[in-house]
Amino acid sequence: MDRLDDWRNQIDLLDEILIETLSKRMDISLQIGEYKNQKGIAILQPERYRAMMIARQQQATSLGLSHDFIDSLFDLIHQESQRKQRKNIGGENKNGGKE
């Protein structure tokens, strides 16, 4: 196996780990959504989201990743998390918007 194949295999493995990790994150997010629903807490918590993004941006910078990349990535993750939470508690219409 040449170096290119080795690198590609490493990326494939990391992608599998990334997808498994995202799935676990979504499972936890659903638990959070259920808790918020039971306690009457809004799904979106802007202060928490801002604090989380600042922490992720700082970590990204320390690892040589751009803020734009991390912002885009976590925006997508957060949108999916909210969508799944709304769907789980029955507050999502078929177009993905909150009813």
Distance between the termini: 54 Å
> Looking at CATH, which topology would you report?
Chorismate Mutase Domain, subunit A
Number of DSSP-assigned strands: 0
Broad CATH class: Mainly Alpha
Low-pLDDT stretches are 92-99
Overall morphology: flat
The CATH homologous superfamily is called Chorismate mutase
Number of domains: 1
Walk me through the structure:
This protein is mainly alpha-helical and 99 residues long. The chain has one domain (3-86): Up-down Bundle (Chorismate Mutase Domain, subunit A), CATH 1.20.59.10. Helix content is 77%, strand content 0%. The longest helix is centred in the N-terminal third of the chain and has 37 residues, at 3-39.
Short description:
It is built from 3 helices and no strands.
Topology:
Elements (H helix, E strand, L loop, with lengths): L2 H37 L6 H17 L4 H22 L11
Attribute tags:
mainly alpha, Chorismate Mutase Domain, subunit A, disordered C terminus, single chain, 99 residues, 3 helices
